[in-house]
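Q: What changes when magnesium ion is included in the input?
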Amino acid sequence: MAIASLFVVPSWDDVRHNIWSEEMRFSLKLSLITGITSTILVMLFALPIGYALSRFRFWGKGLVKTVIDMPIAFPELVLGLCLLLLFGSTILRDILASAGINFVFTKKGIVAAQFFTALPYAIRIMKSTFDYINPRLEFVSRSLGYSMFETFKNISLPLAKNGIVASMVISFARCIGTFGTVLILAGGSYMKTEILPITLYLNISYGNMGMALTSGIVLMIVSFLAIFVFEKAEVSL
Amino acid sequence: MAIASLFVVPSWDDVRHNIWSEEMRFSLKLSLITGITSTILVMLFALPIGYALSRFRFWGKGLVKTVIDMPIAFPELVLGLCLLLLFGSTILRDILASAGINFVFTKKGIVAAQFFTALPYAIRIMKSTFDYINPRLEFVSRSLGYSMFETFKNISLPLAKNGIVASMVISFARCIGTFGTVLILAGGSYMKTEILPITLYLNISYGNMGMALTSGIVLMIVSFLAIFVFEKAEVSL
Amino acid sequence: FSGAGLIKPMEELKINFEKSHSIVIDIHYGSSGEIFAGVAAGQPCDVLIPGAEKYTDDALKNGWVLENTVTKMVLHIPVIAVPKGNPAKIKGLMDLTRPNVRVAIGDPKAPAIGRVAKQILIRGGIWEKVKSNISVYAPTVNQLLIYAALSQVDAAIIWGDLVTWAEGKGKLEIIPIEKEYNIIKTIPTAICTGALHKNTAIQFNEYITSPEGMKIWEKWGFEPCAE
Amino acid sequence: MSFLRIDNLHISLGDFYLKDVSFTLEKRDYLIIIGPTGAGKTILLESIVGFWKPQKGSIYLEKVDITNELPEKRNIGIVYQDYVLLPHFTVFDNIAYGLKKKKCCQKESKIREMACMLNIDHLLHRRPDTLSGGEQQRVALARALVVDPKLLLMDEPFSALDPQTGRETRQLLKRVISKSDITVIHISHDLNDAWALANKTAVLREGALLQFGKVDEIFNRPRSAFIANFVGATILHGTAEKNGNGLTSVNIDGVKLASIDSAINGSDVTVAIRPENIIVLKK
Amino acid sequence: MSFLRIDNLHISLGDFYLKDVSFTLEKRDYLIIIGPTGAGKTILLESIVGFWKPQKGSIYLEKVDITNELPEKRNIGIVYQDYVLLPHFTVFDNIAYGLKKKKCCQKESKIREMACMLNIDHLLHRRPDTLSGGEQQRVALARALVVDPKLLLMDEPFSALDPQTGRETRQLLKRVISKSDITVIHISHDLNDAWALANKTAVLREGALLQFGKVDEIFNRPRSAFIANFVGATILHGTAEKNGNGLTSVNIDGVKLASIDSAINGSDVTVAIRPENIIVLKK
Ligand SMILES: Nc1ncnc2c1ncn2[C@@H]1O[C@H](COP(=O)(O)OP(=O)(O)OP(=O)(O)O)[C@@H](O)[C@H]1O
Ligand SMILES: Nc1ncnc2c1ncn2[C@@H]1O[C@H](COP(=O)(O)OP(=O)(O)OP(=O)(O)O)[C@@H](O)[C@H]1O
Ligand SMILES: [Mg+2]
Ligand SMILES: [Mg+2]
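A: The predicted holo structure follows.
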């Protein structure tokens, strides 16, 4: 309902024209690339961390879990500021720079911003998913000669499938939709670090409502298709 | 790390002074009330919907799941606009008004905005959680004379505990931290619909970094405490 | 509806007006872009006070505000904000051309300050040179403030009233822009086509542009328009 | 006056078919179902309790068609083959769960009594996942017995018990049943159960009901070679004699066999032994 | 030359203690562990395979201390009491899973052969949750047997099988074992297994090892009244006679008992029968 109402306002000619503009193509492409990259990175980190939080006991675990969850509560603006302070601080900046990486005002910054936005969600979901997997199944695999890592790959991961899909849906959606964090860390410069939500915002600021709505619609279509594919994958896997 | 760095910049005198200001107290109180209300509402909706999505098959289920997930991908601005168009539209507005409810520019609007922001996450997590619960356990309860609803209450809910905690952590964090949606639907009125992220935003906007950072810190402390309590609850339950 | 940067004077004006007219006014703050989007989406709004004339102009074009109600109110003066201690030793506009100075300006197409900054630089004849120093075109004014306060850039061109607070707290330093280059903008106010309380709105607009209102504006660092 | 009537029950699950199973039980009947693994015994039981919906046929309980009745309305007790204890409840709460739904007093003492009889009273505070196989099985049995169902279904309820505990549990079951007018369907792989507990036996194979009738009918007049082979016990006649250690000794033409069953001293008795219980050791 | 040595093994789990269990097995030994439910049999087995860490004591396999070895390094096959099949694999993949880790050829044919022998070859494409109890149990058995472990642990591996399938499976097991030099520890509630399969028996009760020794030692010279009562079988002597339907008939002073065990016609044999298998019916 709320979604459908967005389609009511714009004129169709406008949309058709805007959708093929260079800006839109640029921002769509950048959105997809960064969104997919970040989602993959998020999952690569969330799976082992979520597993460790679910299976192992250690001192201060409650604290660690809380700190990991906290960024979810931050407004995007705050999270962006935190990341800026972190990556913009002279020490880390120099270390990263010597490795040829600079997050501030760059495309890599978009990925970093999306990564840190989505990671806490993915970790939290994976932790609760692994909680539901019987550790005895993992033990059986180990008693048949598989190491802990192989067991994780062969048993824990396939069994966590439903939770992984949930994590991926949320991570990807979060990555592609986040605006404030990217804006602060990566700058949100026209045709440089411009992803779909920024196109939307920029065009509202320009007063170009047609373009803004078009980017909103494109964002919706992209996320619809991606999520639909994920959700189908859950059933067929 | 990223979090700690936020504490570095502000001067402590500033923070101490700001933390007791009327504005901060108002916005903290409003944040807590709306955050808790929304979280409760979100869970009330997410539990049955997530359960239905996990247990029942129906035509077009993939589509329904996708549409429910989609709002996660919307930048907060877009979601806010969608809600505004929905609740601001004359038809729904009149219906709601006749029931004495007005969402636009009111505190109820804050709750509505937070509710719709957090709901998709909670539903998605609850669905995947219920997927991991063996339906035979539910059947046993029914064969012992309990109706479907009683079984849901006695068996499915307690077994879904870990997933419920995950949902609540994410919902509450999302509710308390969301900014753009609330800004658009409820308007960011000083001392009226001002919640913590809006305090932060308003103060940055006129350059009062001290107050902005203070509200950031308050937000962090509140979310830290709340999440810590949730995460502890998971262990003890 | 008001630009978020105007919150301090607007709150004071609001309280005074409420007292003298014994009515209640709701003011919603947001960035100019956001409140503009709000009006576009049909949010009920009586008075629109964005951060720059561009928005009232656009709104006028779309027929969202009443033509003869657009009034210029106060001045918006661009300045150069530099981080505390002025690490790059900026003394004036021309210093922005020095190599390795990191400069942030608003996106020339988005916030009003962006367009103004570009025009200032062009008027100073240094646009092309400064361009290579610009590390970010920020779509929101807040970013400029944050980047300067956090030393992510050595200089940012920004509204003067925005940094009076931060300057007071010693986070930023202000370098005035030389008069000959500076372009001073005004903050407008307008009444919306869809206004539900048109008469009150007119009264409010009259009040905030009155000499009494102007005193409050001045108190918070805005200069009245010399009409 | 049939108590339970199964009429042409037909269920298909993947490759497996339960083929037109029909039989009738009277009140207080005790039916043992035997058959090779994968015969469909569990599926038959679970369809009576309502877990599987039959494609065809109907189930009548006390003349009421319950084929499409909700499981919670059927009032049938069941002991599952894999116990299916509720993992988030203690043993006590597992047993109490069904009882809570019933209007009756002295629930707690009833539960403790049942637990005592089944020798699981020391486990009442524990969670099911910390129990041994035999302990879990007895909890499942207690949960089903404590609610006094009119119809009790049991799927291999003694399979995880050691011989001695199995013996005690069977005796307990006999006692409980004799005091009430409960009807029982019991799946067992131990053919002795048919002799010791039941008055009717059914043989199931590949989803079809091969024979249904009185216990000795099945054992003495098997309808096919398969059944004969499956149940092929030795039947002997002798005289009971009391024996020192609580066992009954049966004298069969001079050969004495010790049995745990009790019999009046000096009475003439029939003895059944299955071939798989005769262990031959070369000297 | 001990193959497996358990030395003062001590494990505590909640209220339960496994108390200083010690015993030694030679290569090719077949040990049956018997004991009442909750005796700690499963815990003992699972500690040998590495699921529980002992508080005290040690386990030596071929003179190597494996007490703190990782489970994947121990190379011990185990059939769990509750099967623990991997739910996301087909039956084929469940059986193949352990084999994949081993360097060996003709995996597929090996799996099919094993499945054929256990009569589960028609289930290879199915998921474990659609199998009946007995089918699952045989899959678990196949999974453990197919990797040819040096030490095989089995926790009630025949409990869910009907008599006939149980008989066939026991015979298959005997055949497989006789062809290799595997050492077996087998928990069973069927005391016949001790006679039919094992050369050693251990009695466990409340976490303590009451007696350990040759099978006839336990049955004929029980060390305590509890053991005597627990294993109290009748031992008889007679002559084997071939019988029509494949069974062996034993003539004991004129009384003929049919047995499934095979024996040379006319040879003198010993017969063991347990009291719970003698069913006495009043005439
Ligand atoms: N969900 C299912 N889908 C497909 N086939 C099934 C399903 N459930 C059971 N079967 C098959 O139906 C047959 C009968 O199963 P059932 O569990 O009733 O056997 P059973 O007689 O109880 O055997 P057991 O003595 O081994 O427990 C089996 O061959 C089994 O593989
Ligand atoms: N995780 C645990 N925590 C506490 N007690 C446990 C735990 N696991 C098992 N026990 C207890 O240890 C005792 C021995 O258990 P075990 O499973 O070894 O019995 P068992 O001899 O295999 O019995 P069965 O023949 O019934 O399978 C039981 O009384 C059981 O309740
Ligand atoms: Mg079965
Ligand atoms: Mg056991």
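Observations recorded in class: Chains A and D do not touch (no CB pair under 8 Å).
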